[in-house]
Amino acid sequence: MSTAADKARFFLEKSVPELKEYERKKIFNKDEISAIIKKRSDFEHKLNARGAQPSDFIRYVEYEINLDTLRRKRVKRLGVRYAGYSGQRRIFFILDRATRKFHGDLGLWVQYVEYARQQKSFKKLCSVFTDALRFHPTSAELWIYAAQYNLEDHADMSQARSYMQRGLRFCKSSRKLWIQYAKLELIYTAKLIARQRILGLDKEVESPEPAEDSTDDPNADMITLPKITEEDINPSAGDADGVDQVALQTLNSTPALSGAIPMAIFDTAMKNFNNDDKFGHEFYNMALEFEAVPCLRKILEHVVAVMQETNPDSYLAQICHIRLPTAGIHPTSPEFPRALGTSLARLKGHWEDPRVAKEVINWMQSLETREDLDPSLRTVATVTIQNAQQVLQQ
Known about the structure:
The chain is mainly α. It contains 20 helices and no strands.
């Protein structure tokens, strides 16, 4: 049986040709190479001995990253044509060994993913995600990370959805995963809207209501989402203005832009959580962040309708209903004062509940502190806060 020293010597000998190349091309001198050998020897003996910890691998990786950074700077400064050994390959090898030995340590996998992403090694990253999720299928954060990576770095919404759907098979009880899935869809919708505006396709057209297509089975492995085709989000040019009105109408009625997908996710999640009003409130607050999305009002109206139907006495359903008129309207918009008046009219019948008053204070304080708010609206917010505080003191 090979000892720890034998294993360390084996890994060190594999780096000898690399170090000889450094010396031959004068990237590092003899003293520096001796220092590199000593440092690697210390790390290898520590990693191959009993009692090695994940932190030992991390320190080794950090050293190699710093060494590779120095190597690159010298290669560039010296004008060396260097196409031989890659520090990236060595770092990947160390991380491979770390995750094989400590496959239960999620932090190591995250470190591996971060480095591969930084190096834009997409093929390697795909493999790392696959292995990490195989060992940690119940980590909602890892499924979310994989989905966000595919959308942000590759604009691959199909793959992002696939990660979210698979994640929900293992983490069906994770509220964060359900919320982040819907948020991912709204981010995608916002990007499509921005693309429409860039292409001049943001004209107002009437679109039919999306068909109800969410699953009725909360125990289903997958959420049945409305289908989206490439033609739905990439209509060809048509008339003299460069806009095909038929294609434009089709585009605006797709589930991606009509809000059908976030609503399907919400409906399935509410059934999974037994119509929990806290989840509904959390979903509502998340969706409020996307005020530029045209279908926001439709989504929030659906959320409020479901909450009022399933939990009519819930103060969270009431506060969502109260805030609904101002949803999606910027405080500097001419429509905002009237919408705020409608919200305050709805509030009159619920002052007796101190929990509603507390939520109103949080809402009005965020409005009151806006620098661009009209002075009269700031006065309204201040008075409303004072009234709510009086309710809490009673």
